[in-house]
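TA notes, week 10

Several of you asked for a full example with nothing omitted. So below is the full record: structure tokens for the whole chain, then the designed sequence directly under it. When grading your own attempts, check the secondary structure regions first.
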């Protein structure tokens, strides 16, 4: 179940990120609490990159659709419980 947010932004973040259809690199960085550099590295990796887009003829101001971000996170993360089991060698 995904948490919904108010129109003011996501709770607990230092600077609120509004719930909207498209996000910039900076906004995704704040949402995930990781650096913009890491976001850009994930977007440029060869295998399963973070699916940012740019408009034709542009080199800056890339963006990502909210659903694309959620789908990518689902396939590129795991539950803490599962990570702990894997680390301890439990099935």
């Amino acid at each position: 179940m995904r948490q919904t947010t108010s129109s003011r932004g996501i709770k607990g973040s230092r600077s609120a990120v509004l719930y909207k259809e498209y996000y910039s690199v900076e906004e995704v960085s704040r949402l995930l609490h990781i650096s913009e550099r890491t976001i850009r590295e994930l977007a440029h990796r060869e295998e399963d990159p973070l699916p940012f887009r740019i408009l034709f003829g542009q080199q800056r101001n890339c963006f990502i659709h909210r659903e694309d971000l959620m789908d990518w996170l689902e396939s590129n993360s795991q539950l803490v419980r599962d990570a702990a089991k894997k680390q301890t060698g439990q099935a």
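The radius of gyration is 15 Å. Use that as a sanity check on your answer.
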